[in-house]
Specification:
This protein is mostly beta strands and about 750 residues long. The chain has 5 helices and 46 strands. It folds into 2 domains: about 80 residues, Sandwich (Immunoglobulin-like); about 500 residues, Maltoporin, Chain A (Beta Barrel).
Length: about 750
């Protein structure tokens, strides 16, 4: 068919555009040729500093670009957990698929997300970040997050007793309430309350990131001293893959799990479940947890994807209470006879938690990424004490119920203006409501507050200098408006050589805030405590300065950081005019110290992380303490904060091979201030050393045997005074794989 006139011109133009454009199909794989999903791929034309397009790889590892016909491009791949990769593509002729193989990251090269909400190498994150990969988690086989977190630099984990006991995290002298905890993009910690890491299962976790320092600019309330983020695995194999297994150990411990995952065309899925049970050690120490979840996605177009995540956890814990104080069991009077203090055989607690999210990601127009997320998180906690033993400290019946719901929407936009400039901005609205009740309280009054946040962050890399600056504006229906800024600077002071392979200096300043807990603001909590609707958020002023020295061609890195935190408007319960204890913003406290960390690869597959943390804390001001009415430990000015050891150290040694893997984790926690709160004059918890071992061996490509030993040195210690920790415990099992590649 022949065209003439204007039809010929149109036909010629369409033919030219068709011939002048080409589809670029990039596949990203890891060193074992397994596909990498969720990697950020930037496509840049020669001589241009503005990315022509930015996409995330699909579950099958693909990023597909339709661009004008340049014969050469530069591609940058940022995949969390790997090293950043930059390659030049020659499209003469255009290959059907371009495969980019990622490298395992050296100590300072690991790409992380949590520090900036976008993928960046950790050396450019402007803060201290540590990670646990899926391979490390497979060796450690943690039952819950506290099993893994305790071996990360700068983390002090305090578990009240054995499995299922409240397990809190203290970072850089902050409270256990100062940690933001995010799972699959949904915040699961309740503002103002201690998050229990002992009941957060890590089954099917793909990666854990741990960021230290104030991060309220990006994450809002609670991110006062750290952010912990967990991601669930996505399916990636065209052939459906069924994984299942079980293990058992002493103390009548049994664990079973299964998952079905895969990716087919535009769709990917991962459905999983886990059941853990143990009798524990001693009286009333049983713990069980059931986990079920799903992670499913669909690619609606090359630039548009939709993902749905769901996770339900249901746990029950025996609560023996305080009874062994650093090995000392004080006598109590039972019907006129002095008897040793015994664990409470009747108290128990129950958690029933559900979270879900729907996320729409749009990678258009060029250089842009948009993420729209709707989320819902339900938290239900019950604690019941039937008081069946007069030989325990708990001498009254109790039933405590907490039902909290957080539902909302968040938009995050990212724009890469240049290769050296990146903007992140967003808006979040959340409705938080809950009901707190107790047998001794009046009828519970529900509490509700609506929060709206807007945030902005700019990242710049100008030669040797990297800068991150941002701010967040928050409006709350309960306490009004607040703003939190942050700035971080990183300077490559010396490029170095093979031995000393680069010296970076780092400084950051930030403020943070934490909303009061719902029970502190609304309703009555019982036991003579009263809420206060005029409470303000707790706040922190934080700065840190440090350096990173890379060694041996970048295979090792030595990091040292000085941190300085001032906490103010801290909430305490003080007597009011009616004699009740009411919550007020009164206390100021201070924490400073240093973290030193050495990371590196001894050889291929063998990595080592060693860290030491020094922390000094002090209460600066407590207005209720006067000469006429002095305060006593631990509330008086000059007193240290509880549970914070001055000295702590960790070691994590891992070998990850193709046929076998082993792990050695060691945690030393020094003597730290504590209080029995029962008049026994016990004001400290003794120091301890805990060592965990783990290993696996692939019998064949489908069957793997593994074993883990916790507290391998059988140390008898208290992480929280009065609550003896589990002694040496082991598990061994086998897992199977059917289908997959």
């Amino acid at each position: 068919m022949r065209f003439s006139g204007p039809f010929a011109a149109v036909f010629f133009l369409l033919s030219f555009l068709s011939s002048a454009s080409a589809e670029i199909k990039i596949k990203v794989v890891d060193p074992q040729d397994a596909v990498v999903a969720g990697a950020e791929v930037q496509l840049l034309k020669p001589g241009k500093s503005v990315p022509a397009a930015v996409q995330s790889t699909s579950a099958e590892g693909f990023a597909i670009f339709r661009e004008a016909a340049s014969r050469s491009y530069r591609v940058q791949v940022l995949a969390p957990g790997f090293a950043a990769e930059i390659v030049t593509l020659d499209l003469s002729p255009t290959p059907e698929v371009i495969t980019i193989k990622l490298r395992l990251a050296t100590a300072a090269e690991t790409v992380v997300v949590t520090a900036t909400r976008t993928p960046v190498p950790s050396q450019a994150a402007g803060t201290d970040v540590d990670t646990l990969s899926s391979q490390q988690l497979e060796v450690m086989q943690p039952i819950a997050a506290d099993d893994a977190m305790r071996f990360l630099p700068g983390a002090v984990v305090n578990t009240a007793g054995q499995r299922g006991g409240i397990s809190s995290l203290f970072v850089r002298g902050g409270e256990s309430t100062y940690n933001k905890v995010i799972v699959d993009g949904v915040a699961i910690d309740n503002p103002g309350e201690t998050f229990d890491f002992g009941t957060l299962p890590l089954a099917q976790a793909d990666r854990v990131e741990f960021v230290r320092g104030a991060q309220s600019t990006l994450y809002g309330s609670d991110a006062m001293t750290s952010v912990v983020q967990v991601w669930t695995r996505t399916g990636s194999t065209p052939v459906p893959e069924l994984r299942f297994g079980s293990d058992g150990g002493n103390f009548a411990t049994a664990n079973g799990y299964a998952s079905l995952a895969g990716a087919n065309g535009r769709f990917d899925y991962n459905f999983f479940g886990n059941q853990f049970n143990t009798h524990g050690q001693g009286v009333n120490a049983a713990y069980s947890d059931s986990l079920a979840g799903a992670n499913a996605g669909v690619r609606l177009a090359n630039e548009v994807s939709l993902r749905v995540r769901m996770r339900h956890s249901n746990s029950r814990t025996g609560v023996p209470g305080e009874w062994s104080f650093n090995g000392y069991d004080p006598p109590v009077n039972v019907n006129g006879v002095m008897q040793p203090l015994q664990p409470d055989p009747s108290e128990w607690s129950h958690q029933n938690n559900l979270l879900g999210s729907v996320e729409l990601t749009v990678g258009a127009p060029s250089g842009w990424q948009h993420r729209f997320t709707g989320f819902d998180s339900l938290y239900r906690y019950t604690d019941v004490n039937q008081n069946s033993s007069p030989a325990s400290y708990d001498s009254y019946p109790d039933r405590y119920d907490s039902h909290d719901n957080r539902v909302g929407f968040e938009y995050q936009g990212d724009y890469s203006e240049r290769t050296w400039a990146h903007s992140t901005f967003g808006y979040r609205i959340e409705n938080e409501n809950g009901v707190i009740s107790d047998l001794d309280s009046p009828p519970p009054a529900p509490g509700q507050r609506l929060g709206q946040d807007a945030y902005l962050q700019q990242q710049l890399t100008l030669g040797r200098l990297s800068a991150i600056a941002g701010g967040r504006f928050v409006h709350s229906s309960a306490y009004g408006n607040t703003g939190v800024p942050r700035v971080a600077l990183t300077l490559l002071a010396l490029r170095g050589g093979d031995l000393l392979s680069g010296t970076r200096l780092r400084f950051s300043y930030a403020t943070g805030f934490m909303e009061p807990a719902l029970y502190q603001v609304f309703g009555e909590t019982g036991y003579g405590y009263a809420s206060n609707r005029n409470l303000l958020p707790e706040r922190t002023r934080s700065f840190e300065a440090g350096f990173e020295q890379r060694l041996l061609a970048g295979r090792w890195a030595l990091n040292a950081t000085y941190f300085n935190n001032l906490f103010h408007d801290r909430i305490e319960a003080l007597p009011n005019k009616t004699g009740e204890y009411q919550f007020f913003n009164v206390e100021q406290s201070f924490a400073h110290g240093a973290e030193v960390e050495l990371q590196g690869r001894i050889r291929s597959g063998l990595s080592l992380t060693m860290a030491y943390t020094y922390t000094s804390t002090e209460i600066l001001d407590n207005p209720v303490c006067t000469q006429a009415a002095p305060c006593y430990f631990p509330y008086a000015p000059g007193d240290p904060l509880l549970h914070r050891p001055k000295h702590a150290a960790t070691t994590l040694l891992s070998y990850l091979g193709t046929r076998w893997g082993v792990n050695l984790g060691a945690s030393f926690v020094g003597r730290r201030p504590d209080d029995d709160f029962d008049g026994l004059n016990i004001f400290h918890a003794a120091g301890y050393t805990r060592v965990d071992l783990g290993g696996w061996y692939a019998i064949n490509s489908r069957i793997t045997a593994y074993a883990n030993v916790g507290n391998a040195l059988n140390d008898h210690y208290n992480e929280v005074v009065g609550y003896p920790a589990l002694t040496a415990n082991f598990r061994a099992g086998v897992r199977f794989r059917i289908g997959g590649d």
